C-alpha cells in the first residue's frame, strides 16, 4: 500500500495548483477514492473541496480528518523525476503528502467494522490564503453535517523524523494582513510645501508599528508586525508624490490579542494620517485564526502516538505561521499536531523542499489510531 500512496503523492507533486484553482487536484483525489467508495461524497465544498463520508450505522460520533489541496507560487529547485510540471507553482508546504496520507486511509476504513459513527475525510481548498476553511464552513452542503471531532497534522522540517509534536493550548498563531493606501496631493519636487507627500507618514508608521511588536515567543502578549510591501511615487525626480501604500502581516497567540492589536493599528493610522491631512483606506485580509487545541482532543493524539511507540515532544508555544484549521477549531473540539519531517529537510516554503515519503505510513498510522480511540 505504501507504494500506491507514494505514487499518488508524487503525482500530486507533479501537478500542483494554486489556492482556489485546485480542480485537477480534486479530480485526482476523487479518482483514487473511487476504488474505495465512501457512503457519501460531497464535491465543490468552499470551491474545489471534497468530503468523503464513511458511515457505520446511524448513531455515534463523527470524526473529521482534514488535509489541504493547494500549492504555492514558488518555482521548484529540485531535480528528481517527479518535479512540478507547472511553471512557478509547486508543493512547498507538503500538502501533497498530507493529501496522500488522508486519501490512504480510505482502503483501511473500508475494512473496518465499527458498530457506529462516521469518518469524514476532508480535502480542503485554499489553505494558503486563509480562505478555504472559512468558505467550507459557510457552504450549504457543509452546514448539513455534524462534526464531533476535527483533527489535522502538518509536517515540520527541522524536527526529528516521525516525532509527534504536541502544543497546548494551540498549534499556530492568529495571523492577519493589512494594507494602508494613503492619498495626499502631488506637487513639484521643488515645491513640496504645496503638496501633501505621504512619505513622512509612511516612515512614521513603520517606526510606530515597530514599537508595537513583542517578538519574544515565550511572552504571553507575543505580537509580531512584519512590513512586506511599500510603494511610493515613481522614479520621476521632479515630482513630490501624492499617494503611497504600505502592507504588513501581523500575528499574535490569540484572538483577543489580535483584536487589541487591530484596534491599536487602526487608531495609529487615523491619528498619523490626520496629522498630515492625508486620506486613507485600511483593509484587512488573509485571516488565519489561531488553531486552538481542545484538551480532550489533544489527549487523544498523545495516546495515539504513545500507543504507536512514537516519540512525543511537547512544544513550549504555538508555531508562528498561520494555519486556517483555526476556523475549524473555533467550531469543533479539535487538535492539530506536528509530524517531524527530519532535521536536515529544507524548511517549509523553500524552493528545494520536498515532503519526505517516509512520513506517509506514520501519518496514516496516527490518524488510524485517533479514529480507533473515538469509534472503537
Major sheet details: 8 strands, mixed
Q: What's the CATH H-level homologous superfamily of the largest domain?
A: Zn peptidases
Please, how many domains?
2
Side-by-side strand order of the widest sheet: 1-2-4-3-5-16-6-15
Descriptive account of the structure:
The protein is built from eleven helices and 16 strands. It is of the alpha/beta class. The strands form four sheets. The chain has an eight-stranded mixed sheet. A four-stranded antiparallel sheet has the order 10-12-8-13, covered by helices on one side. A hairpin with a 3-residue loop joins strand 1 and strand 2. Helix 1 (2-14) packs antiparallel against helix 3 (95-103), helix 7 (199-212) runs antiparallel to helix 8 (255-275) and helix 9 (295-307) packs across helix 11.
Layout of secondary structure:
Elements: H1 2-14, H2 23-33, E1 40-45, E2 49-55, E3 62-68, H3 95-103, H4 105-111, E4 118-124, H5 132-137, H6 140-143, E5 149-156, E6 164-167, E7 170-172, E8 174-183, E9 187-188, H7 199-212, E10 223-232, E11 239-240, E12 243-252, H8 255-275, E13 279-288, E14 291-292, H9 295-307, E15 312-315, H10 326-329, E16 334-340, H11 359-375
Parallel strand pairs: 3-4, 3-5, 5-16, 6-15
Antiparallel strand pairs: 1-2, 2-4, 6-16, 7-14, 8-12, 8-13, 9-11, 10-12
Helix pairs in contact: 1-3, 3-11, 7-8, 9-11
Amino acid at each position: 500500500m505504501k507504494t500506491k500512496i507514494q505514487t499518488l503523492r508524487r503525482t500530486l507533486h507533479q501537478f500542483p495548483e494554486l489556492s482556489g484553482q485546485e480542480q485537477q487536484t480534486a479530480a485526482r483525489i476523487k479518482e483514487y477514492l473511487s476504488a474505495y467508495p465512501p457512503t457519501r461524497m460531497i464535491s465543490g465544498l468552499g470551491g474545489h473541496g471534497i468530503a468523503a463520508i464513511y458511515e457505520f450505522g446511524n448513531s455515534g460520533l463523527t470524526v473529521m480528518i482534514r488535509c489541504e489541496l493547494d500549492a504555492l507560487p514558488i518555482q521548484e529547485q529540485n531535480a528528481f523525476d517527479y518535479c512540478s510540471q507547472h511553471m512557478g507553482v509547486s508543493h512547498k508546504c507538503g500538502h501533497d503528502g498530507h493529501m496522500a496520507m488522508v486519501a490512504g486511509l480510505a482502503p483501511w476504513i473500508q475494512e473496518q467494522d465499527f458498530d457506529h459513527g462516521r469518518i469524514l475525510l476532508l480535502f480542503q481548498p485554499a489553505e494558503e490564503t486563509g480562505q478555504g476553511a472559512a468558505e467550507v464552513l459557510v457552504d450549504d452542503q457543509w452546514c448539513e453535517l455534524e462534526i464531533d471531532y476535527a483533527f489535522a497534522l502538518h509536517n515540520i522540517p527541522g524536527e526529528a523524523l516521525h516525532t509527534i509534536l504536541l502544543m497546548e493550548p494551540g498549534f499556530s498563531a492568529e495571523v492577519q494582513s493589512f494594507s494602508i493606501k494613503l492619498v495626499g496631493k502631488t506637487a513639484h519636487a521643488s515645491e513640496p510645501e504645496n503638496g501633501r507627500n505621504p512619505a513622512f507618514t509612511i516612515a512614521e508608521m513603520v517606526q510606530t508599528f515597530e514599537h508595537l511588536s513583542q517578538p519574544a515567543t515565550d511572552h504571553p502578549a507575543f505580537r509580531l508586525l512584519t512590513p512586506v510591501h511599500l510603494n511610493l511615487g515613481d522614479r520621476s525626480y521632479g515630482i513630490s508624490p501624492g499617494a503611497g501604500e504600505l502592507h504588513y502581516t501581523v500575528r499574535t497567540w490569540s484572538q483577543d490579542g489580535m483584536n487589541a492589536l487591530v484596534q491599536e493599528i487602526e487608531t495609529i493610522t487615523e491619528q498619523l494620517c490626520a496629522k498630515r491631512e492625508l486620506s486613507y483606506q485600511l483593509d484587512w485580509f488573509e485571516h488565519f485564526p489561531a488553531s486552538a487545541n481542545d484538551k480532550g482532543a489533544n489527549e487523544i493524539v498523545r495516546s495515539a502516538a504513545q500507543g504507536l511507540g512514537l516519540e512525543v515532544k511537547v512544544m513550549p508555544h504555538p508555531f508562528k505561521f498561520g494555519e486556517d484549521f483555526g476556523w475549524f477549531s473555533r467550531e469543533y473540539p479539535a487538535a492539530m499536531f506536528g509530524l517531524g519531517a527530519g532535521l536536515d529537510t529544507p524548511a517549509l516554503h523553500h524552493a528545494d523542499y520536498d515532503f519526505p515519503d517516509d512520513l506517509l505510513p506514520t501519518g496514516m498510522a496516527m490518524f488510524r489510531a485517533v479514529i480507533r480511540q473515538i469509534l472503537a
